[in-house]
Design brief:
Its EC number is 3.4.11.-. Keywords: Aminopeptidase, Hydrolase, Metal-binding, Metalloprotease, Protease, Zinc. Its cofactor is Zn(2+). The protein contains eleven helices and 20 strands. The protein has 434 residues and is of the alpha/beta class. The chain has two domains: 276 residues, Zn peptidases (Aminopeptidase, 3-Layer(aba) Sandwich), CATH 3.40.630.10; 129 residues, Aminopeptidase i, Domain 2 (Roll), CATH 2.30.250.10. The chain has a nine-stranded mixed sheet with strand order 1-2-3-13-4-14-18-16-17, sandwiched between helices. A five-stranded mixed sheet has the order 11-12-20-19-15, covered by helices on one side. A three-stranded antiparallel sheet has the order 5-6-9, with no helix packed on it. α3 runs parallel beside α8 and α6 crosses α11. It is globular, with a radius of gyration of 22 Å.
């Protein structure tokens, strides 16, 4: 097995990944670059594949979901199974509407949709930029897609002054339709948004665009990821839920080395809105991939019976100002290790066997483990874990790094926990026990 990265190197690389990944499209592009550098080979789902045992490969779908793996020997994977790590590439955000242009009081604004369960208040008074995917017709008539990222602050969502709403701290609620149009600037006439996109693509070096046909764009906070706290105890960034898990799984796969069992990382889009899409966890992407890499149905089913999936998605750390929101015995602390997520109603897919294996692996590498159970009088969220378990019929564990401010524009995690989970997952990819 390859050596672990040091904590300092790991966190530096993690922050660079977070900053380079403002959208699921950019996150998958960033992951692909790191896989390329590690010797993995990209495959096209439309091509016939010729796979070599021991070689690393990856595929993408919709530019926003990715599966990466080391191709195992067919005989070995039947006897040893697969070690799968799952995560998701999307985060709650504000997405630009198809016809977004608004012109009020001399200000140029864009209308937005709320994607996922966004914590809306922190989006106000931030320096916002815009990124995503733009689909164009080029000068030769071809339809092509390009990633776009304005990088610099180009928009803001100012709060209403307290003087104009004296009850704001006590009772202001946010109307998503009327409060969230984002201010892009001042203009005497309403600008053509698609023309602005075309111009910026030209600045990025894409100068053969005839017209912008459509786009999938979201706003994001331009503040970079940082370690903060009196002793740098915390990692602050946008999109920790769940790019943190994507990065941890990616590095575990890259640094894990070969093993008899098949090693797989799957990062799906659309988890925050239910996972029901062609590239989501409730879609066919993973099962279709598995049928191609192990075509024989008998071998495939036998291998799955010896397999395990670890679904990595961040957990709610107990907030010192709101500790009553947690069960008294199940309040995970930051920098005290990854969290096993448990729910009797199968909102999480963990069971005693998968939890026990994770605890054993964590003990072997010296990483502490915590447990999370939601208060019995509160509703429980869910992950791709139960979805993937029901699609593949594979034993599954739900775990995550504890964090604060989940679904905020800027979230907070412990600066040690991601590295600890990386070490456990690296060991998981090597284990012959499931």
């Amino acid at each position: 097995m390859a050596q672990h990265q040091s904590l300092a190197d790991f966190n530096a690389s993690l922050k660079a990944f977070l900053d380079a990944s403002p959208t699921p499209f950019h996150a998958v592009g960033s992951m692909a670059e790191r896989l390329d550098a590690a010797g993995f080979v990209v495959l096209d789902e439309a091509d016939t594949w010729t796979l070599e045992s021991g070689q690393g490969y990856y595929i993408t779908r919709n530019d926003s979901s990715i599966i990466a793996w080391r191709q195992p020997d067919a005989g070995a994977v039947v006897s040893q199974g697969w070690r799968l790590i799952g995560a998701h590439t999307d985060s709650p955000c504000l997405k630009v509407k198809p016809c977004p242009e608004l012109h009020k009081q001399g200000y140029f604004q864009l209308g937005v949709e709320v994607y996922g369960g966004v914590l809306l208040n922190p989006w106000f008074d931030r320096d916002l930029s815009l990124a995503g995917r733009v689909t164009c017709r080029d000068v030769s008539g071809r339809i092509l897609s390009h990633l776009i990222d304005f990088e610099q602050p180009v928009a803001v969502l100012p709060s209403l002054a307290i003087h104009l709403d004296r009850e704001a701290n006590a009772s202001r609620s946010i109307n998503a339709q009327t409060f969230l149009p984002v201010i892009m600037g001042q203009a005497g006439e309403k600008p053509d948004f698609r023309e602005l996109l075309k111009q910026h693509l030209g600045q990025q070096g894409v100068d053969d665009v005839d017209s912008v046909l459509d786009y999938e764009l979201c706003f994001y906070d331009t503040q970079k990821a940082a370690t903060v706290g009196l002793h740098q105890e915390f990692l602050a960034s946008a999109r920790l839920d769940n790019l943190l898990s994507c990065f941890i799984g990616l590095q575990a796969l890259i640094d894990g080395g070969e093993a008899a069992a098949g090693q797989v990382l799957v990062c799906n889009d659309h988890e925050e809105v239910g996972s029901m899409s062609a590239c989501g966890a409730q879609g066919p992407m993973l099962s279709q991939w598995l049928e191609r890499v192990l075509p024989d149905a008998d071998q495939r089913n036998r291998s799955l019976s010896r397999s395990m999936l670890i679904s990595a998605d961040n957990a709610h750390g107990v907030h010192p100002n709101f500790s009553d929101k947690h069960d008294g015995n199940h309040g995970p602390l930051l920098n005290r290790g990854p969290v096993i997520k448990i729910n009797a109603n199968q909102r999480y897919a963990s069971n005693s066997e998968t939890s026990a294996l994770f605890r054993d692996l964590a003990e072997l590498v010296g990483v502490p483990v915590q447990s999370f159970v939601v208060r019995t009088d509160m509703a429980c969220g869910s992950t791709i874990g139960p979805i993937t378990a029901s699609e593949l019929g594979v034993k599954t564990l739900d775990i995550g790094v504890p964090q604060f401010a989940m679904h905020s524009i800027r979230e907070l995690a412990g600066s040690e926990d991601a590295h600890g989970l990386y070490r456990v997952l690296q060991r998981f990819l090597q284990t012959d026990q499931v």
